[in-house]
Structure prediction request, 144 residues.
Amino acid sequence: MKKITFLLLLLFGQTFALERESTLKFYHHVLDALFNKDIVSIYVDDDIYKNVFSYSDKIKTVVKMEKADMVLITNDAVLQKALLLRKKPLLFATQYDYLSKSQDIVGAFYWKKGRAQLLFVKDRLLDKGMTLSDEYQKYLLDTL
Prediction:
């Protein structure tokens, strides 16, 4: 019984590590596409994302939204707080539904049916004076 429990814990740990790695890999790609910086500061209030980002040397989490290059919208409270800022950092969501809640959110990275989904809204990026390289064109929606 102890061996089975140990194997299950090991399997769970490996699955989480793979999930963490794939999430970090996707965010590194997203940040490379959006920012021309070696280290990007992100405000996130979700403990799971904070933990995942703590394994990155390219992402620095910050405590104050005002100090962030990007705010990761993980819930309605974060969105409302971000919208009150005078100078808004780049807003990026963890759920597709948030894209319809604010024109300030430029894109989303989320999981759907166990698959990673990435998309950007072209007109919102253009409003921010941003363009994406050719490799990200397949993730662009003209409008939402």
Observations:
- The longest strand covers residues 105-112.
- The two ends are 52 Å apart (CA to CA).
- The domain at 20-141 is CATH 3.40.50.2300 (Rossmann fold).
- The chain has one domain: 20-141.
